[in-house]
What we know:
Blueprint: H1 3-30, H2 34-58, H3 90-112, H4 117-146
Amino acid sequence: MYKTNFEEIINFAIEREKEAVEFYQNLQTKVRFKNQKNMLKDLEKMEEGHIKILKNLRQKKLKDLKLKEVLDLKISNYLVEKEPTEDMDFQDILIVAMKREEASTNLYKDLSTKVDAETKKLFLKLAQEEAGHKLQFETLYDEHVLREN
């Protein structure tokens, strides 16, 4: 892979992670309950961790990454994407978050097909992290939305 392509991929991924950090920061201002804010703050920190990983990749400071399967409840597959608004309720917040995490998971899986083996493992690890975030939102949706209906 050419160095410029590698740099472009890393820069693109870093920008996506920065967007995710801003997204979770903005959502924290929209939710009403402390436990929701805490969960979103944790996700914000995880996304910031992804930025650090990607920046370290430039310097080839990769550690041994362990990949594992993440359960996919597939709830987001059957939901219509929503635009974030000021008057979102908890269900809307979960839908927006699930769809964003689903898109990020797919992005990293796609990027993993365009790089060398070592970098592929990193992108698959990031996809796994995003899939874990999606699972958190799907679990909340299952527990607080689907079971209430």
